[in-house]
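Action item from last week, closing it out:
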Amino acid sequence: MTGPIGYCIVEDVEAIFKAAQDIIKIGSAETDNFTRADVEGYIKDVEDRLNARLRAKYPVPMPVPVDDIINQIVKRRTAYDIFLDSPMAVGAIEIPVAVREWGSVASRDEKDVLAGRILLTVSTRETRGRLLTSHLKQIRNVNMRISGYDWNYIGQEFIIPKSIIVRAGEVITSEEFVLGVDYEDDAREGKIRRLPDGGIADGQSVYLSFLYLETQDYQKGTRIEKQLFDRSYQ
């Protein structure tokens, strides 16, 4: 099953595990920790719990595809819950840092949505159809060096999700790195990190182009055309 089954799909959760050195394996082999059906069940459970909390503020269930922030919350919370139920968690002295981060980021973003600090593109019950989004989008280009596998802060928060383009050089024809293969980003927090076995070398300078908001209101983002960017990297 590859199509949307809700607020995220199995592949979204699987990508999180792969980025963490395949900490959990999904499949049908005996060596795999969970089946796809198992993961779909976890996604549904997380989705139901999230809907219950969002019901007072937003009409639920939300139409698919959902805002990126909802997808991020569900896939991180699902990955967190699956790990806690996995054999690896039994008898573990402590939960791995990456796993703790999945849970803490999901909880923080959910609280921000409930408190109105992150606004979705669906109408709230209070406004009945008025979209609570910001249209004050700006383009920015950044040159930075990425080291290790820790998060590197870009220096810009509230970047529009899926607008980040990472290249090896300044020009548009330079090699473009692949999200989820070469790097991982957190658009809202404005940070990026290398992935093991990716194409970005330790300490390499990369060139980022992205859209961001002038306000702190959340905006559902879409990838923008490359030719919109100039070469004025900072």
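Closing note: The longest strand covers residues 137-146.
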